[in-house]
Amino acid sequence: MRDISMSELRELVRDDRVHRRVFLDADLFELEMHRIFARNWIFVGHESQVAKPGDFFSTRIGRQPVVMARHTDGKVRVLYNRCGHRGAKVVNEEAGNAKRFRCLYHGWMYHTDGRLAAVPLPDDYPAGCDLKDPKLGMIEVARVASYRGFVFASLSAKVPDLVDWLGEAKQGLDDVADGSPEGEVEFAGGCHRYEYAGNWKHQYENLTDCYHTLSTHASTVADDGQQFHRRPGETGGQAEFTDKAGAPVILDIGVYTYPNGHSATDTIIKEPAAGGVMEKYRKQLIKKHGKERAEEVLRQPYHNMTIFPTLDILFVQNVIRVIMPIAVDRTEVRIFPMRFKGAPREIFENHIKYVNLTHSASSFVQSDDLEAFRRVQQGLEAQGTEWNLLARGIGQERVNNKGVGYGTRSSELGQRHQHHAWLEAMVRD
Q: Cα(167)–Cα(178) distance, rounded to whole angstroms?
């Protein structure tokens, strides 16, 4: 990897545009792994995925393989998935339950807190080789913290407290958890997983991009392809992208930005669903949270909330999306449905059906986006302008005293904010 100077990095992001190298340069991608994915809080998983002692879930932080596991003391650990002997990946399964982790290569065994548990034929090691050295274990990452059951980890100890880093954006996690009559969600619907041939930031930019909807998703929102009209359920919840006169109301959607690169978009649901099972659910929420808070949760003020750099909460489908970079031009995306603990089963089933329609690999909506990402990656290779323009809505945004910004009418404020957060992380000492 060649050296990239601070001044060179600062030239890549301007107030109203970003250089195409940000998506194409393999050396920049390598630097991202060190400056962004190794130095920030990164979403790892949910406590419900490791509900019992011995439960584990394998994932990555950037390209670092890690295991989230609940030890016998009830504490959730995040461990580097690497044997302390010869470096093999220890846990190959995505999820399960184990009393010990055993390395396939030479049989070294580890406790679920990462400590070395057993070494085959230990007497053949010389007296000076300390098999109790903690460095021979599956090492814990530097920081692990949880908020409302959502587990984040950092490979660096030099990160602020998780709650401070989330800031005002923690409201998104509160809204999800408070959607449960028990105040907790569970990751209970499996996982949609797909890859696309493009940079990870294409998906990240897209999370605050309402401007693309009428074009990219024309087959979905046009009169002859109203996918959202087929949402399960008889009442409520229709995504109204145009009004009765055919005007594109989706363009009126606003974008929020928060310190540390987080962002959100306004809801596209004007009124919460009502009638039937929803009345039972509403009464449950009022009993748990009180009427005012219950109505706030039911109104769903956001369409989605994005936690920099990899986590996105989709409120209408009640799922989270995790962006996992593979290479400068290859990205994996995972989508996990969530269940409101204590809520009627029918609500969870409807969420599963809805996410299958909208954000599975072969869905109406997500497949459109993936094709767009592929074309962007290919198009950026072409000669022409060196810059991507992100000027929509510039100068019209407002920022409150908590550092929360807001841009109206499908502003590109979200993308500008994301790239400035990217730059800040890339030049940080």
A: 18
Q: Which residues of 95-126 are buried (b: 16+ CB within 10 A; e: fewer)?
A: beebeebbbeeeebbbbbbbebbebeeeeeee
Reduce the DSSP state of residue 112 to 3 states and report it. Answer: coil
Query: Per residue in 203-252, pLDDT tens?
Result: 999 999 888 877 787 766 665 544 544 444 444 334 455 555 555 555 66
User: Per residue in 272-303, pLDDT tens?
Assistant: 777 789 999 999 999 999 999 999 999 888 99
**8 Å CB contact between 341 and 178:** no
- Give residue for tokens 């194409």: 24
Q: What integer is the mean pLDDT of 406-414?
A: 89
Domain segments of the chain: what residues? 42-154, 167-427
- Cα separation values, 252 from 27, 241, 242, Å: 38, 10, 10
CA 37 to chain centroid: 13
Ramachandran category for residue 246: left, alpha or beta (phi over 0 → left; psi -120 to 50 → alpha)? left
**Strand ranges across the sheet with 143-147:** 42-46, 150-154, 143-147
Residues 129, 131, 133, 134, CA torsion sign: positive
Mean confidence (pLDDT) of the chain: 90
Which is it for the CA torsion 324, 231, 184, 291, positive or negative?
A: positive
Residue-level pLDDT at 251: 62
Q: How far is CA 190 from CA 64, 244, 308, 339, 352, in A?
A: 23, 38, 23, 11, 10
CATH of 167-427, one of 3.40.50.2300, 3.90.380.10, 3.40.190.120, 3.40.50.1100: 3.90.380.10
Task: Provide the token pair at 366.
Answer: 């997500």
Pairwise pLDDT comparison (88 vs 230), residue with the higher score:
88
Class at the top of the CATH hierarchy for domain 42-154: mainly beta
Report the DSSP beta bridge partners of residue 335.
Answer: 192, 321
Contact call for residues 12 and 19 (beta carbons, < 8 A): yes
How far, in Å, CA of 169 to CA of 304, rounded? 11
